[in-house]
Each structure stands twice: as C-alpha cells, then as structure tokens.
C-alpha cells in the first residue's frame, strides 16, 4: 500500500477498533456510515519534542549525587554498628559508650541522657525510663533496627 493513500488520522470508532478509516476527507467514514454511528475525528496530537541530551544528563547527575549520598550514609551507619558491636563485646556495661553517644547526638540531634549501670546494683528500669527509651528508639532507630517480639512468634 502506498503512503500517499494512507490517512493521517482515523475517527475515534475506527481508532478504538484499530481498523482502517477513510480519514477526515470522507465524513462519515465508510464503517460509521454502514453502522449508522457518529463519526468523530480528533486532530492528531502534536509530536512531543524529544528531550534534549542535557536534560537526561542532568537527571543522571542528580541520581548519581543522591546515590553517592545514600552510600556514604550507609557506610557511616555500618561503621557505627561495627564500633558498637566491638565496644559491646569488650565491655560488660549496658549503657551507651561515650563515643557512640556523641555520634548519635550529632546524627539524630539531642538524645536522651546516657543510661549506665554499675555492676554492684541490679538493673531496674522504671516505667518512665522505658517510655523514654521507647520514644528515643521510635524517633531515631526504628528505620534502621527492627525489634522482634519473641512472644508473637
């Protein structure tokens, strides 16, 4: 079939059914006339300009910067967790280490006071301390560390 005979647009009915249409030069088109249906033509959409290469490069650069930032934050978090594991394996105290505490304060803003206990006295946590610890965890740690309740398993 030659491109000269091809219609540039089809009526809505022919377009929906993906059928050949007589085009806007013959209103109503043959199919709409036979089925006694309304023949509606909509002008073809103007072609969207192809995005310039610089736009794609800018988006790629932005995504690369975001990826670098996330990777840097992840490396810092891994270092902090490794330091915490190393510290907790060398110390029997149950409180936060001063170094980790200062790192957490700089990363998460003001933090609740450091909880430490001496090995002489038993560890008894009051309800208000639990509430404060829970609030601290919920605000600063819940996206990084999950808690599994063994009672619900």
From TrEMBL:
Q: Which UniProt keywords apply?
A: DNA-binding, Metal-binding, Nucleus, Transcription, Transcription regulation
Name the principal localization, coarsely classed: nucleus
Q: Where is there biased composition of kind Polar residues?
A: 94-105
Q: Name one Pfam family in it.
A: Zn_clus
* Stored Gene3D superfamilies: Zn(2)-C6 fungal-type DNA-binding domain
Per its UniProt record, what SUPFAM superfamilies does this chain match?
Zn2/Cys6 DNA-binding domain
Q: What are the record's GO terms for cellular component?
A: nucleus
Q: Where is this region: Disordered?
A: 94-120
UniProt GO MF annotations: DNA binding; DNA-binding transcription factor activity, RNA polymerase II-specific; zinc ion binding
The UniProt record lists the Zn(2)-C6 fungal-type domain at 10-41
UniProt key word Cell cycle? no
Q: Which domain of life is it from?
A: Eukaryota
Q: Where in the cell is it found?
A: Nucleus
Q: Which PROSITE patterns match?
A: ZN2_CY6_FUNGAL_1, ZN2_CY6_FUNGAL_2
Q: What is this protein called?
A: Zn(2)-C6 fungal-type domain-containing protein
Q: Which organism is it from?
A: Penicillium solitum
């Amino acid at each position: 079939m030659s491109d000269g005979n091809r219609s540039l647009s089809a009526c809505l009915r022919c377009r929906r059914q993906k059928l050949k249409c007589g085009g806007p030069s013959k209103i109503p088109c043959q199919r709409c006339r036979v089925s006694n249906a309304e023949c509606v033509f909509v002008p073809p959409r103007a072609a969207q300009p192809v995005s310039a290469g610089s736009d794609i490069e800018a988006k790629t650069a932005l995504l690369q910067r975001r990826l670098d930032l996330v990777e840097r934050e992840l490396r810092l978090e891994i270092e902090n967790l490794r330091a915490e594991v190393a510290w907790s394996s060398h110390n029997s105290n149950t409180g936060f280490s001063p170094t980790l505490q200062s790192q957490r304060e700089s990363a998460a803003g003001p933090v609740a006071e450091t909880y430490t206990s001496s090995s002489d006295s038993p560890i008894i946590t009051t309800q208000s301390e639990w509430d404060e610890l829970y609030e601290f965890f919920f605000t600063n740690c819940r996206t990084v560390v999950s808690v599994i309740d063994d009672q619900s398993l």
